Amino acid sequence: LREWMHNRDSENEESEEENHAGRNTVWSFSRSFQLAGPKLATRRRVVKEVLRDLHHISQSFFSNSFFPVLEPVIRVGSAWEGWSHQKEEDVVYYMFMPLTPPRGHAFHLEPDTTKGMPQRAMRIRVELVCTCTGKQRDKDMLCFLHHAEEELKRNQAASLLHTLCTGPYLDVEKIAVWFQTFVISAWSVVPQSGHYTMKMLPSRRCCKMKLMDTSGRRLLVEIIFGVQQGNSDIFLNSQPTEARLPPSTTWLESYAVAEAKFFRRVASQAPHPSCHLKCLRLCARVLEGSGCSIYALKTAVMHLLTLIPLSEWQDRYLTLRLDDILRYLRCCLEEKCLKHFFFGNEDMPQEICLPPDLQGAQAVNLFQHLAQDPAAQTAAMRELSQR
Question: 370-385: per-residue pLDDT in tens?
Fold first, then answer.
């Protein structure tokens, strides 16, 4: 990556002032994205209010139960990061719903050795914890470990092991059914239900909702369940990135929360107005349908944001940064190598908290499949050159 930066600097002697025509073309193309800004902001506000109210209602619904504790949602994905290139009605608002263990329970993460997983996977083993003494002492509940089974059945709700687990492991599909049932039951008391109808869309591992207002405009919301790895910004999540579904007790590692944190950091430190989000939106539109995935684009831009000084991401450098991104992607395709942003990255901002094993991990190549399939690489190169 640093070698590419050196070559790019030596080749790119053309100043930004000499590129007025190209800049005007790009700015006119990007104007359509800017015009939708206020509408998207309103839609984001509605989604935030709905999820805030659902979280508040859940606290009273499950106050005396031993279901997972639902923490406030974390907004992730391009719609919240500010660079979604989709049409207004097609934007999906992704939300992470962190789960923590209820009283008398603990979560333990175990590596999942199931073969063929496209990303790092784990299982979440649920253990009962003594509540008679120690940190979890609770005089208002019976201890699952030290009270008789008959007394527990008669006087207390079932433990998490007997509701949303398969064996000792937290079951994604059972959690999805449980949460979907809660949303359907609670919708009538959500304040926004007076303005929107809600339809639950089919999903085995998350909660997908379609909200429709009286004029027929829709909002698509997807709530993904997650369990935090220690105190890091890396979560295990319920939703796979590929069509193939893993076993219901398999949770896949997700970097979406860390990515959202990274973009918040850039937004706070970049000069205003910055062009990095415009670059993402425009490139995503240009690359749509090509062999280069949107996630590969996002990864490339995150790398460049750590290497090119943020002072050089001002609006007036827009065409230069677009050129950098596309040239860098082309170089990665030629080399069949695009390193994952969160594995062994020496340029990782200090604000991003990673698990120790990820900090020193060997770099993961997102283009490894191209190294194994020359025909796919040739096709991807051809498609990118035609954009």
Answer: 888 888 888 888 888 7
Q: Which domain range does residue 376 map to?
A: 270-386
In DSSP terms, 126 is beta-bridged to 107
Query: Residue 26 domain-assigned?
Result: yes
Domain count, the chain: 2
CATH of the domain at 342: 1.10.1410.40
Torsion of Cα atoms, 115 then 118 then 119 then 122, to 10°: -40
Q: Give the predicted TM-score (pTM) of the model.
A: 0.88
Q: Which residues pair with 108 in a beta bridge?
A: 125
Instruction: Please check the confidence at residue 266 and state whether its pLDDT lies above 70.
Output: yes
Q: Which residue has the higher pLDDT, 233 or 285?
A: 233
Nearest C-alpha neighbor of 64 from the set 141, 135, 174, 144: 141
Tokens of 321: 């940064």
How do 105-111 and 121-128 pair as beta strands?
antiparallel
Q: Could you tell me which of 285, 284, 286, 300 has the C-alpha nearest to residue 333? A: 300
Q: What is d(CA 299, CA 287) in angstroms, rounded to the nearest whole number?
A: 14
The amino acid sitting at 71 is: E
pLDDT-derived band at 88, boundaries 50, 70, 90: confident
